[in-house]
Amino acid sequence: MNSRIRSLLTFVVVLCSAVLAFVGGIRLIAPGSLGWMEEVAPGLAGRVLPDAVDAALSLAVGLAGIAVGLLGYAAGRAGRTTALLRAATVVVSVAMILLTPGGLIPIAGYSFAVVVILGVVVMTVLLVRRHPWWGVVAIAAVAAIATWAIVGLNAADVASRFGPAFVEQLPGVLYAGAYLVASVGLIAGLVIGRSAHRGRLATWVLRHRTAITVAAACCALPYTIARASWLTPWPLLAPSSADLAAAPGTLFTGLSLGAAMLTGGLLTLGLILPWGRRFPRWMAGLGGRPVPVALAVVPASIVAALFTVGGVDMMLSVMEGTLSDGSIGQVLEFVFAFPFWLWGPLLALATWGYAMARREDAAPVVPREPGPLSRIAPRR
Fold first, then answer.
1. 176-198: b (≥16 Cβ within 10 Å) or e
2. At a CB cut-off of 8 Å and minimum separation 6, what does 206 contact?
3. Residues with Cβ within 8 Å of residue 277, at least 6 apart in sequence
């Protein structure tokens, strides 16, 4: 890790940790003064802790994140990291993940659906610049789908309702994001650029990273298939076929979330596919260039943390009857249709394997010295 990346990473960690400490301090000193906190669901730790204790822990982990981030930066520049600092970094990171507010999966899903729509537009522009004729075909396809969504599925109405609702929840989303980014940043500063020596677990992950990544990507299939079935007479995970026919906005929302889930699965596969190492040739300005390791590892790590804590939170809410009636059938439906509880840990391992594989690719090849017999062997 060069000094510029290390400095940027430290700045982000310290900034996010300062936000956590500031909000935690206000919650502790003046409870109820932050109106937007009423819309923030408690995290895994907040489920069993009083609000005052949760606020005090937020203040504590924020201050600890600042201290550990700065100490890690100094130790990284000096090339010396003590076992105590590594242990403190892991403890603070885990505490941040446990304190991360819940209810993030639905918000993340809607937000990523918007990102996917914007991403399709950007990719189409890059394709047009490199291959104009194929770009024309892509523009026609995108225009046809957009027209169908806006006219036939009433996408404009969905956007008008989603926008204000998202703005109302934006402070809570940023607050939760500060937890995730700070925790991932601390771990990244601890791991990236360290010795290439690997233990048994790391060796096992690197050896089986293809199978782990495929298993992680397959977690997107149940929800994607269910949402795609909304285009058939036999919709799955839908209120009813009559509701879909009478409410095109609901159909657009479901299909958008299904497309976002499918995109997430494809991006997961990118950790083992060639375009996860080099940008595809058809991307104007980027084609053929190596994908920066941080561009893949950092977002994937944040999503892995989000899926893990959000998936466990979702399962607890289902079992408590908050998201369902608490019946065994609905619990099993959520377990298999929304396997974020499994996708998160698998994605974390897949990202770890990707980072180790890219490190091997970047390692210089040291030529072997000729042995004593090769010096006297006859030339052919």
1. bbbbbbbbbbbbbbbbbeeeeee
2. 198, 353, 356, 357
3. 290, 291, 358, 361
290 has pLDDT over 50:
yes
Instruction: Encode pLDDT of 60-85 as tens digits.
Output: 999 999 999 888 888 777 767 778 88
pLDDT 10s digits, 155-196: 666 677 777 777 788 888 889 989 999 998 888 877 665 555
Diameter over CA atoms, the chain? 86
Other Cβ atoms within 10 Å of 75 Cβ, number: 17
* Contact assessment for residue 305 and residue 182, using Cβ atoms and an 8 Å cutoff: no
- CA pair distance 155, 124, nearest whole angstrom: 20
pTM assigned to the model? 0.82
Task: Give the separation between CA 93 and CA 252, rounded to whole angstroms.
Answer: 38
Q: How far apart are CA 29 and CA 174, in angstroms?
A: 21
Percent of the chain with pLDDT over 90: 27
Count H helices and E strands in the chain, helices first: 15, 0
Q: What is the C-alpha to C-alpha distance for residues 234 and 73, in angstroms, rounded to an integer? A: 56
Distance separating alpha carbons of residues 309 and 302, to the nearest angstrom:
11
